[in-house]
Amino acid sequence: MKHLTLRQLEVFAAIARHGSFTRAAEELFLTQPTASMQIKRLAETVGLPLFEQVGKRIHLTDAGRELYTVCREIFERLDQLEMTVADMKGLKKGHLRLAVVTTAKYFAPRLLGPFYQRYPGIEVALKVTNRERILERLADNSDDLCILGQPPEEIDAEYQPFLENPLVILAPADHPLAGARKITLARIAEEPFLMREPGSGTRMALERLFERHRLKIRVRMELGSNEAIKQAIVGGLGISVLSQHTLALDGTTGQLTILDVQGFPIQRHWYVAHPRGKQLSVVARTFLDYLFEVRQHFVAPSIPAVRDAPRRKSGAGGNRRRSHSARR
Ligand code: PGA
Q: How much distance in Å is there from the Cα of 277 to the middle of ligand 1?
């Protein structure tokens, strides 16, 4: 194994990532025969084939998968070495791979602006996806740090809370329950709900709450995005539970209200996590320090409760005139 070269590993990793010799060769500015030759030599050194072709697609063999795991560790450690050396030279330089759950997109990109200004040598790749995918990435050690809305129970990870994440019930500003006090959950359960997709952390929190109270959610519609849900609420399709962070920079201001429901807001937190035992790069540690320094600037925005807004008379649904009386 000592005869394999970093160049061969680089070509191998690119093919494994793209599932294609052609695209890997393009990425590395190589001809395809050169890439194939590198892989042939690597497979000879390993003593087993690394790829197999099924139909038009290239797949890793078992030996290929083992090599790919080692390969990623080697490149990660080399990356970290580069960052440590830069740090020794007094520079903060390198890459940060950050993965955040869908709902954290309301503050995570804004967090990065001042971070870039302070550390112009750090490049950040931000992946935004739902909780289920983030947990897969965490288990797979795909990122330096992950941000998610609940400790990752299923995975052996280290995590710290850094910000509150209140979940609230949002309704159109002219909803009959707008402005009412201490609405019971049983009353809320009569309303049609707009739900996030399965795998969403927000959905999981809502389902758990209803289960605890032995109530059923009347699902009117399932939508894969917080923004689509807010628009659907304004459109009169139903109500929903969303993170209060989704109200940041809101184009729907004045058209939505937070209902005062018993047991709400559900008090959750944002957590920053990484696999247990992972050696964090200098850049990842720099980001963690920064996160804890600036977090208080990123608390969830609010909208005032509706008091005297004109209400609809009937239950949710149908087209209505919108009230503009609840402004920030
Ligand atoms: P989600 O996660 O965007 O997948 O709903 C948010 C959360 O876990 O609070």
A: 25
* Ligand 1 centre distance from Cα of residue 102 (Å): 6
What pLDDT digit, counting tens, does each position of 104-141 carry?
A: 988 898 899 999 999 999 999 999 998 889 999 999 99
- DSSP string spanning 143-193? SSEEEESS--TTS-EEEEEEEEEEEEEEEETT-TTTT-SSB-HHHHTTS-E
Q: Which atom of ligand 1 is nearest to the CA of 134?
A: 4
Domains and CATH numbers, the chain: 6-68 (1.10.10.10), 74-164+269-302 (3.40.190.10), 167-268+304-321 (3.40.190.10)
The least confident of 5-9, 98-102, 315-319 is 315-319
Is the beta carbon of 102 within 6 A of some atom in ligand 1?
yes
Taking 90 as the threshold, does the pLDDT of residue 305 lie above it?
no
pTM assigned to the model: 0.74
Is 240 touching ligand 1 by the criterion CB < 6 Å?
A: no
Q: Does the structure show a pLDDT above 70 at 313? A: no
Atom nearest to 199 CA in ligand 1: 4
Q: Is the CB of 171 under 6 A from ligand 1?
A: no
Nearest alpha-carbon partner for 94 in 74, 126, 118, 120: 120
Residue 202 CA: nearest ligand 1 atom is: 5
User: Amino acid letter at 81?
Assistant: L
CA distance 129 to 150: 15
